[in-house]
């Protein structure tokens, strides 16, 4: 990160009329940072963030990710100071008000950042106002009775949380041992003790430009987030529905757990998030994922398209209160102003909880579903235990009951109803992120296939081993039911003529002497078909 000392930028003239590659890169990084900043600030003002700061910066459309991320974070960190400084001038009173975010970024660079190159209309305009900006900053220091910018920042100080860097190995492209070996060449890395395919690296490890991340061999994904797909436990060959799938990290995790077999329907309503979802799937190399641009609540549970869905992962929109540190929400104006628990947020949480209840009830209504995982990155009881409690009667009517994901995990749900010990919580203080996971399992499949085997009807027709090695004879044994009950098996390979021969009791005994273990009685009628190939 860049130093926050008062270090006025120096205007550099472009030699020969051509800027260097570094100057050009800085120019575009400021524009990309301004776009991210606009999205972040608008979402924060409406309490409806499109995505986290990291997600926006590290999207495929941002080229210079490292410089853009640094600019966005530092501009947000200094935003209260920048607003006060710009408010003391007339810079934002004119046409530049429409490019407010770009003005913030460039002003940060002029007052605290690097040398500014005289390229770009906004840069040229603000460099002409450099004396006015520095004068306003000096007056602000006097007003706040501090000597340095660092002391000024302490007045707006927000706690920063450090947590280990978790990366999930994409086993569709790379096995865990090889990934560990490659990462250990540069970093201290180890396997996580609970989540398969998860590696742990030191806090602050920057892997965003690492080749393994760029080619989709590993994904930057937190531990709690990686626990969600594992809790669902989809089997290879299953058909799985990811109800609210963007940005797609959990979707491609499901694909890896299923070894690329079966089918995953990735449902997403937001058009912009669908694009990000498709990029994630493409980078992962998953070939068994079908993207569905639709509202999950509008999917018809009786539609034959979903008649084979056996597992549903529901990670609906939530307040994100459990990942505020990881999302860098402490840099946002609403957090700084202490508005995290105001009335508007309470109303928003209640609206989210209403949607979450509908979505979970809908997920439990799919006829063939055996397992449903509900997860949020929220610490609010209204979005977690209260949602689960509200659907328990419906779940029971469909044959579902709560199961315990990761039984060895110590932190469980709040004890607000009987059975809450099955729920899983992660703690924002202890685990550095707050997640919630609930697992519903249909009762008749809890013990695997034992229930199915128990109620399976015996087949009326069984096929025995062909005693003739040359394959020219086929014997079918059926329960005694008269001549009309005997139906020759169709042959689809060759044109054949079938000659049914009905044997006497003596010929039956000669052909099939009683052998212990065949499980057939003497009262068995045999039908023989001889294959005669037509030349």
Automatic annotation (TrEMBL):
PROSITE patterns: SAM_MT_RSMB_NOP. GO terms for biological process: RNA methylation. Signal peptide: none annotated. The keyword Methyltransferase applies. It comes from the Eukaryota. Residues 1-23, 449-472 are annotated as: Disordered. This is Probable 28S rRNA (Cytosine-C(5))-methyltransferase isoform X2. It comes from Nelumbo nucifera.
């Amino acid at each position: 990160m860049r130093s926050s000392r008062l270090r006025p930028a120096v205007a550099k003239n472009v030699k020969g009329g051509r800027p260097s590659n570094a100057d050009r890169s800085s120019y575009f990084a400021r524009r990309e940072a301004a776009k991210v900043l606009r999205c972040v600030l608008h979402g924060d003002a409406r309490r409806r963030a499109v995505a986290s700061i990291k997600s926006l910066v590290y999207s495929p459309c941002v080229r210079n990710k490292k410089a853009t991320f640094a600019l966005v974070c530092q501009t947000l960190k200094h935003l209260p100071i920048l607003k006060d400084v710009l408010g003391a001038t007339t810079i934002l009173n004119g046409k530049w008000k429409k490019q407010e975010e770009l003005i913030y970024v460039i002003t940060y660079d002029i007052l605290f950042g690097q040398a500014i190159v005289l390229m770009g209309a906004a840069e040229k305009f603000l460099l002409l106002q450099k004396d006015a900006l520095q004068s306003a900053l000096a007056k602000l220091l006097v007003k706040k009775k501090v000597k340095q910018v660092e002391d000024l920042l302490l007045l707006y100080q927000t706690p920063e949380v450090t947590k280990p860097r978790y990366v999930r190995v994409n086993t569709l492209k790379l096995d865990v041992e090889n990934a560990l070996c490659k990462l250990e060449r540069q970093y201290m890395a180890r396997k996580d003790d609970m989540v398969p395919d998860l590696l742990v690296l030191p806090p602050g490890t920057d892997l965003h430009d690492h080749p393994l991340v760029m080619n989709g061999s590993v994904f930057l994904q937190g531990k709690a987030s990686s626990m969600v797909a594992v809790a669902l436990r989809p089997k290879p060959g299953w058909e799985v529905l990811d109800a609210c799938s963007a940005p797609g990290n959990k979707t491609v995790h499901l694909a890896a757990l299923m070894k690329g077999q079966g089918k995953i329907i990735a449902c997403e309503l937001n058009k912009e998030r669908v694009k990000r979802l498709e990029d994630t799937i493409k980078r992962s190399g998953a070939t068994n994922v079908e993207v569905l641009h639709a509202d999950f609540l509008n999917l018809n549970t009786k539609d034959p398209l979903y008649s084979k869905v056996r597992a549903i992962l529901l990670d609906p929109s939530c307040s994100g209160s459990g990942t505020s540190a990881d999302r860098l929400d402490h840099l946002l104006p609403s957090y700084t102003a202490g508005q995290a628990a105001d009335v508007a947020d309470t109303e928003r949480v209640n609206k989210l909880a209403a949607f979450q209840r509908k979505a979970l009830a809908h997920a439990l209504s799919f006829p063939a579903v055996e397992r449903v995982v509900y997860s949020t990155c929220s610490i609010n009881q209204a979005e977690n235990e209260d949602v689960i409690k509200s659907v328990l009667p419906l779940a029971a009517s469909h044959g579902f009951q709560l199961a315990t994901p990761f039984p060895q995990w110590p932190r469980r749900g709040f004890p607000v109803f009987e059975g809450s010990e099955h729920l899983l919580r992660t703690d924002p203080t202890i685990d550095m992120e707050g997640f919630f996971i609930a697992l519903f399992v249909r009762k008749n499949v809890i013990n695997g296939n034992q229930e199915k085997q128990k109620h399976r009807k015996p087949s009326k027709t069984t096929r025995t081993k062909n005693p003739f090695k040359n394959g020219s004879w086929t014997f079918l044994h059926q329960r005694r039911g008269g001549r009309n009950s005997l139906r020759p098996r169709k042959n689809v390979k060759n044109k054949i003529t079938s000659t049914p021969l009905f044997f006497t009791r003596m010929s039956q005994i000669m052909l099939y002497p009683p052998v212990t273990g065949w499980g057939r009685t003497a009262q068995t009628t045999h039908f023989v078909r001889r294959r005669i190939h037509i030349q």
